Amino acid sequence: MTDSQAGWPEWGPQIGWLDLSDERRELIKGLYRLAGWVADHPEVPLPKVAATVWPGRESPDTSWETVCARVDAVAVALGVEAVVRPAEGFYEVEAWFGPVEVSCTAITAQSRQAQAAQNSYRDNVQADEPAPTSAGGAR
Questions:
Q1: Could you tell me whether strands 90-97 and 50-52 are parallel, antiparallel, or unpaired per DSSP bridges?
Q2: pTM, two decimal places
Q3: Residue 31 burial (CB < 10 Å; 0-12/13-18/19+)?
């Protein structure tokens, strides 16, 4: 049986999927399709696969404690402990499923503001054009 969207086979378990949200089901199907693609194309390099679970800041009113609690919930589900990286303003957890990284990071408001300030210059800095090279190489 194929998926009507891309012609990819229906991968993965079907039992119990009625209890999952549509978004969760589609993510699982996509992961299985990726696995099938990797298996079917040994001639291409392997992709780097990383999954990011965003703890979210739905609004400026979402507290730091709420976001960190979400990171903690991911840590419990992964069976690892979250780590504080004060220099970066991060509270994060990461785990590996073989070569696949799963991470969840809470970022302080100060760190977000510093990154936004740094990125605000991005469009104002232009790289110099490379110097033309003369034909025939160096002498």
A1: unpaired
A2: 0.71
A3: middle
- Distances from the Cα of 36 to the Cα of 9, 12, 29, 94, 113, angstroms: 8, 10, 10, 25, 41
pLDDT, tens digit, for every residue of 9-59?
555 566 667 788 889 888 988 999 999 999 999 999 999 999 999 988 777
Tens digits of residue pLDDT in 58-91: 777 788 999 999 999 999 999 999 999 999 899 9
> How far apart, in whole angstroms, are the C-alpha atoms of residue 114 and residue 93?
22
Beta bridge partners, 9, equal 2
* Cβ 95 vs Cβ 78: under 8 Å: yes
